[in-house]
Design a protein that fits this description.
single chain, about 350 residues, alpha/beta, Rossmann fold, 8 strands
């Protein structure tokens, strides 16, 4: 009896970026991003008023100026690097796979890319968000959007979702290799800076109690395995052990907060404190970001540098994101092949 082998579709999903650094495109991007109920998880009417009447109108012009600093001849670094990874992964996987790239917010959009994939009539689809640590606001949102589209298809193929892979050996190896160009002993302190989240979002992981009631800074268990705070600390422990960094010499911190009720310590405050304590050189890893973007290039590379200098420090050195690192591509390949 003959069996149809069929091709496998791979959908890489990254966060997204404005179509250009113009105020109108930035406004459209922020509106879509911040109106996502998994990003700002408050009641619908309160979210609409907060986002559309307060945050977006005031933030869009300021953010547009920052995006202009970020933009290159190739456009958004996040789009450029993600497209390069898509091409390299396609080459590694070969003709039995079709690799596609979508952004959770703006373009190329998940609905548009899935429409293209539907036409390919794949036997199986692997959905692989490019976020190593699970968070409802990133991985969860991307997976929900994919499910919302695919559930309307008449023919639904086998679909496999990848929720997280922060401890994948090749992911860790790629970061270690990125760090190899820096002599760790040259730095007074090392920061592992992750994107922040509201505390209430990690609390929602648990049926009973709060995140702070658990030992998320020290261990990953069956209960907290999808707690973003727990997996960020776990990522850091793995990297610190591999790099030979003692606990006293590094700090886990969280950046890009919207208000004070977010995961602490705040990265910008740690940078300020270390400068006031006399540190002259900081090395900063950003293991939640797999492609360099506004949060790494501008927030860490420029804004934290300015804060550090204002308080007596000299140099904040960013360890570049994985971008199109060969080991990162190998990591994705191994995840797809399962």
């Amino acid at each position: 009896m003959n069996s149809v082998k069929g091709k496998t579709g791979v959908l890489l999903v990254n966060l997204g970026t404005p179509d250009s650094p113009s105020v109108s495109h930035v406004r459209s991007y922020l509106s879509q991003f911040l109106n996502d109920p998994r990003v700002i998880d408050i009641p619908w009417l309160a979210r609409k008023m907060l986002v559309n009447l307060i945050i977006v109108p005031f933030r869009a012009p300021k953010s547009a100026k920052i995006y202009k600093q970020l933009w290159t001849e190739d456009g958004s670094p996040l789009i450029f690097h993600s497209n390069k990874v898509k091409e390299l992964l396609q080459h590694e996987l070969g003709s039995e796979y079709g690799v596609h790239l979508a952004m959770r917010y703006k373009n190329p959009s998940i609905p548009d890319v899935l429409t293209e994939m539907q036409k390919e009539n794949y036997k199986k689809i692997v959905v692989l968000p490019m976020f190593p640590q699970y968070a409802s606001a990133s991985t969860g949102s991307a997976i929900q959007e994919v499910m919302d589209v695919i559930r309307k298809w008449w023919v639904i193929p086998e679909v496999r979702f990848i929720s997280q892979y922060y401890d994948h050996p090749k992911f860790i190896d790629a970061i270690i290799d990125r760090a190899s160009k820096y002599n760790l002993k040259d730095y007074d302190h090392i920061l592992f800076s992750y994107h922040g989240l509201p505390v209430r979002q990690v609390d929602k992981v648990y049926d009973n109690g709060l995140c702070e009631d658990r030992d998320c800074e020290e261990t990953v268990t069956d209960e907290n395995q999808y707690c973003y705070k727990a997996t960020c600390f776990a990522t850091t422990r793995i990297l610190a052990e591999r790099l030979g960094i003692e606990e006293k010499d590094y700090t886990v911190c969280f950046q890009s907060r919207l208000d004070k009720n977010w995961l602490e310590p705040f990265s910008d405050k740690v940078v300020e404190e270390k400068a006031k304590e006399g540190a002259k050189k900081l090395l900063v890893f950003s293991p939640a970001f797999t492609a360099d973007c506004l949060e790494t290039i501008i927030e860490i590379g420029d804004e934290y540098q300015e804060i550090f200098e204002e308080n007596g420090g000299e140099k904040v050195q960013l360890v570049e994101s994985l971008n199109d690192h060969p080991l990162w591509v190998e990591c994705l390949k191994e995840i797809v092949l399962g």
